[in-house]
Amino acid sequence: MGIATTNETERVLARYRIIEGVTPRFETHNSVPNGGVLFLLPALLSQGLMTIKDTHKIKEGYYKLESIILTLAFMILCRIKNPEQLKQCAPGEMGKLIGLDRIPAIKCLRSKMAELFDNKTTCTLNQKLALEWNKKTDDNLFLYTDGHVKIYNGSAALLTKKYVSRQKLCLSATADFWLNDAQGLPLMVWTGELSEKLQYMIEHVMIPQLLSSGIIKKHDPTNQIPVCTLIFDREAYEPAFFIRLWEQYRIAIISYRKNVKDKWDEGAFTEMGVVDNGQNKKTMLLCEKPIELNGFKFREIRRLTTREHQTALVTTHPTLPTHIVAPALFNRWLQENYFKYMLADFSLDHLVQYGVESIDLDKKIVNPDYRSISHKIKKEKEKLQRLKAKLLNNIKLNTTTELEEFRAGLEAEAKLVAQIEAKQTTVNELMEKRKEIPDKITLAQLPEEKRFTKLKTESAYFMSTLKMICYRAETAIANLLHGVYGRYEDEKRMVIKNIISTPIDLIPDIKNKTLTVKLHSLNTPKVNELVSQICKVLNETETIYPDTELRLIYKSAVC
Predict the structure, then answer these.
(1) What angle is formed at CA 180 by the lines to CA 473 and CA 225, rounded to 5 degrees?
(2) 225-to-179, 208, 250, 251, 309 alpha-carbon distances in Å
(3) Are 86 and 75 in contact (CB under 8 A)?
(4) Is the dihedral of CA 495, 335, 80, 68 positive or negative?
(5) pLDDT of residue 188 exceeding 80
(6) CA 98/CA 24 separation, integer angstroms
(7) How many Å apart are CA 164 and CA 169, to the nearest integer?
(8) Which of 135-139, 428-432, 516-520 has the lowest mean pLDDT?
(9) Can you tell me whether residue 408 is helix, strand or coil?
């Protein structure tokens, strides 16, 4: 039955379906490794961890759904990347944290995860969570959106190539598109199937789901107040797209302006007080002017930096003050910082489940033959331009009065002219040939061995949603230290990670229905004092451990 197994009778009964699921039973234990993760349990529950029970079901054997959910959440918070890494952990010690003799074996946990993924209801779960996380529906609802590329190093799936900015290469990859709130906390995520761009995802995927989930409401054509404000970088820049968002959905945008060549008079800039992402007050030199793009009136705002550089941004929000629009866009780095942290600590790019899925054969893609001949045309035009430049240079240099040298120069120029004419003929032939090739085709028109596939998306979707819950829970506890560390996010999160990895003593009191979690001493008296303050806040929540009647009581080493 495995190492640390003590409930043999109940396991046998569960094996033959005589009982379904074992209720957690806690016993007194000392120095339970990584027990500090229980300090995040109230935050996990407040962020909707057990909402998973409403949308996902499994066949409960010895382990109930609550135990599987808690096991996965604790794994994420303890920085355990996958079930296989549980081999490095004592199963009995981690089992004490979920009130059982041991955590599920790797094979068992993998099968339970597969059952969760087979529900295909993560989209509903994500929408329910996002609605609870973001109940704000006024005109100051800021939503940050951006894409994140996940590199694929396997060979089972045939994926499209994407540009990976952090490696400056085009590689096989998938793209996740994230939606974060004004504080940079994650709300929703979607995975592209082929080569979808951010603009397409916003208009055809994000907005329909935001409307169906109730995060934003259908707009009133007579109302000029936006239902929300989307903030993104230059990737989705297109004035016609901005106009559609405003006229069809009453969604305002804030984005950088592209192709800015003029400079405004520096005397027009005014010093304004703003609030940055750390809630610190600072000043910026800002200037606003109306601008017309595609026949639509936009607001253009520029920031003048100390290096006399002017950063231009545009917005369709009609009433938002200038000193709020500018920092709202610059605070977009909250989302970038979220990606960086999730990559380093929560294994955001880790492959959850092996296997591939087919894509709708009616989906259109760029014709590989069209792309190939376009690439050839580009290269031939580059060669043509080099020949023309060389000819012009020879003409300028051929100013000698010596007859023989002048004649030799003319012969060289004649050869270049012939080469240019031949190259121009090649370009024209390729362009005529390209006209006969359709620029887009369906997947069904591709040879079977060249058809694109996709990785199993439901498993990645579910685990990304669970990681969102864990990140938000960790952030909630870290925010309790704001008065001590202020804007120093790294310091706050380091304290939380130290708490998670610290051993605890578990002391259940069945009579009084309590479960005391006593954290061992940390590295400094200051941190121990902070933990003591965190305990006071957590005890006020009066959290009940899931599937039990035990109220959690938190204590620190200095209590």
Answers:
(1) 125
(2) 21, 19, 8, 9, 32
(3) yes
(4) positive
(5) yes
(6) 7
(7) 5
(8) 135-139
(9) helix
Tell me the pLDDT tens digit for each residue of 110-166. Answer: 999 999 999 999 999 999 999 999 875 444 689 999 999 999 988 899 999 888 888
Long-range contacts formed by 78-81: CB under 8 A, 24+ apart: 78/34, 78/37, 78/500, 78/501, 79/345, 79/346, 79/347, 79/497, 81/347, 81/350
Contact 231, 329 (CB under 8 A): yes
Q: Which of 329-333, 363-367, 400-404 has the lowest mean pLDDT?
A: 400-404
CA 94 to CA 85: how far, in whole Å? 13
Q: What token pair was written down for 521? A: 């001493």
In degrees, rounded to 5, the angle at the alpha carbon of residue 494 between the alpha carbons of residues 493 and 496 is 65
Q: Are 515 and 509 in contact (CB under 8 A)?
A: yes
The radius of gyration of the chain's CA atoms, rounded to the nearest angstrom, is 30
Which residues have CB under 8 Å from 137's CB, separation 6+? 215, 216, 217, 227
Contacts of 293 (CB under 8 A, 6+ apart): 239, 314
The answer to whether the CB of 206 falls within 8 A of the CB of 195 is: no
Helix axes 65-77, 457-478, angle to 10 degrees: 70
Locate the domains of the chain by residue range. 8-121+470-555, 368-437
Return the amino acid letter for 163: Y
- Taking the C-alpha atoms of residue 51 and residue 74, their distance in angstroms, rounded to an integer, is 16
Q: Which two tokens stand for residue 60?
A: 């409960």
Among 78-87, 270-279, 440-449, which stretch is predicted with the lowest mean pLDDT? 270-279
The span from the CA of 530 to the CA of 505, in Å, is 19
* Amino acid present at 448: E
**Burial of residue 384 (number of CB atoms within 10 Å: 0-12, 13-18, 19+):** middle
> Tokens standing for 436?
């006969």
> CA–CA separation, 380 vs 426, rounded Å?
8
Give the Cβ contact number of residue 101 at 10 Å.
22
- Mean per-residue pLDDT for 180-191? 94
Q: Could you tell me the end-to-end alpha-carbon distance of the chain, in angstroms, rounded to an integer?
A: 40
